Backbone:
């Protein structure tokens, strides 16, 4: 272990923790803690969306995908753009009708309290499981650098991230996201340049070797209704359709993303942040995929065997081959990506716990809490979820490649979530009972798809959404439910 590299990593960890904790003094109530007081500019929210959307799974998982395949993952990114158009048209207008703290308040307005708790509970399960994969991904990098066991690696990063999230709320999350994203993209550009310099012939050598191996292939336009077609993960149609459904669910119905959209000053700035984030996402995925291609050329040219699992490829190469000092900077950048996403998850899990479960219960029981008391409870919820994520992270060590494991776990549950949101905004006669029936059916079908078929994860959300929407529409007819006012608790626009 090189002293200079370790010093860089440790200085970063201490510095970002101090920076995030400085926002404690601006936290006076839940509006500040969970929405950042709606003071963050749209460009900062855009960077924060990118950090939450990609994080460490992108940094260590995407180069591994390109090393073992090609640039086909960019087909999924095209679906991300289509999803942002859908979210902007269908969901954002509803989120800015009055002041909301969570996405699931929309479900209460449309259907009732039971569906609100069901969707909020589903988010808590979904985010905890998916974040557990990311917490484990942290240990891969930290163990490469420090040589520590997975348990110690997880505890160090989670405790530091928990500290500044506990203190500074969403304001700390957004601004540390900005700093961390600049750092890890800068680190990626730096490593790109170094790897390129290690390959004979430079970029020309990369193009020649990678083209011969088919590494620059992006599009696969084949289409059929055969089972084999739906078992292929990265095709144009799987990417466009599957990526659209996946991102509509994650950015339009999941609290970790919706919370950022709600933190914007108004709907126009929220929309600007959403679309600006796609530009950064596209450039980011392209950069990390190209790093994977260059590592393929380098390893094959040098006659070296890559590390196993391939998720260790990029961090291990950085630590073993980059110059002293520079390696520490890039590793710090990778850790930055992990901490950015973890802080986002902690704050969104806490906000859903307090706003969708605790506060409605307290109001029903007639227990009035002061702003200071609610703020203490919000911080306690943050601490609780930190402990939960540590536990799940330890269990996630046996779930396969981290990028695809994280996406597949989330995709199993997103279909039911997106399906019921679409029932809420696109139908008028579907009531709460039909919606809950639809969610149960959607989840049951996805359990079968995940464990009983070979269908690729890119199709999970599309299948789950369509099943949920169809069952909800049919249930409304067969149960002969009375039509409901679609917005039972209207509030004036701000």
Residues:
């Amino acid at each position: 272990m090189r002293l200079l590299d370790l010093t860089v990593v440790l200085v970063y960890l201490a510095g970002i923790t101090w920076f995030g904790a400085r926002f404690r003094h601006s936290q006076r109530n839940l509006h500040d803690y969970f929405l950042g007081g709606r003071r963050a500019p749209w460009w900062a929210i855009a960077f924060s969306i990118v950090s939450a959307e990609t994080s460490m799974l992108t940094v260590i998982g995407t180069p591994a995908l390109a090393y073992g395949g090609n640039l086909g993952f960019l087909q999924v990114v095209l679906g991300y753009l289509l999803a942002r158009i859908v979210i902007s048209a269908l969901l954002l207008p509803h989120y800015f009708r009055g002041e909301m703290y969570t996405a699931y308040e929309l479900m209460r307005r449309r259907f009732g309290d039971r569906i609100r708790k069901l969707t909020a509970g589903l988010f808590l399960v979904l985010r905890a499981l998916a974040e557990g994969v990311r917490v484990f991904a942290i240990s891969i990098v930290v163990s490469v650098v420090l040589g520590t066991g997975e348990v110690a690696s997880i505890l160090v990063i989670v405790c530091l991230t928990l500290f500044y999230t506990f203190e500074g709320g969403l304001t700390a999350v957004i601004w540390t996201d900005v700093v961390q994203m600049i750092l890890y993209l800068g680190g990626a550009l730096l490593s790109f340049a170094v790897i390129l310099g290690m390959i004979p012939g430079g970029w020309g050598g990369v193009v020649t070797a990678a083209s011969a191996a088919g590494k620059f292939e992006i599009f696969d336009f084949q289409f059929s209704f055969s089972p084999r077609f739906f078992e292929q993960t990265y095709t144009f149609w799987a990417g466009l359709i599957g990526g659209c459904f996946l991102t509509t669910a994650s950015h339009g119905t999941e609290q970790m993303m919706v919370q950022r959209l709600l933190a914007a000053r108004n709907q126009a700035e929220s929309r600007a942040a959403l679309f600006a984030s796609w530009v950064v996402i596209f450039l980011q995925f392209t950069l990390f995929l190209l790093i994977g291609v260059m590592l393929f050329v380098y390893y094959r040219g040098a006659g070296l065997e890559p590390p196993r699992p391939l998720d260790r490829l990029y961090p291990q190469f950085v630590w073993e081959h980059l110059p002293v000092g520079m390696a520490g900077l890039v590793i710090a950048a990778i850790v930055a990506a992990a901490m950015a996403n973890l802080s986002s998850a902690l704050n969104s899990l806490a906000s859903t716990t307090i706003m969708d479960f605790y506060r409605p219960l307290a109001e029903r029981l007639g227990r009035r809490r002061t702003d200071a008391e609610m703020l203490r409870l919000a911080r306690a919820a943050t601490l609780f979820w930190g402990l939960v994520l540590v536990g799940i992270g330890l269990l996630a060590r046996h779930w396969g490649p981290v990028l695809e494991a994280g996406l597949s776990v989330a995709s199993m549950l997103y279909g039911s979530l997106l399906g019921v949101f679409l029932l809420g905004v696109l139908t008028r006669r579907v009531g709460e009972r039909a919606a809950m029936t639809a969610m149960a059916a959607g989840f049951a079908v996805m359990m079968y798809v995940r464990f009983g078929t070979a269908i690729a994860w890119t199709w999970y959300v599309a299948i789950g959404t369509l099943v949920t929407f169809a069952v909800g529409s049919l249930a409304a007819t067969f149960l002969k439910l009375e039509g409901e006012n679609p917005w039972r608790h209207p509030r004036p626009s701000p």
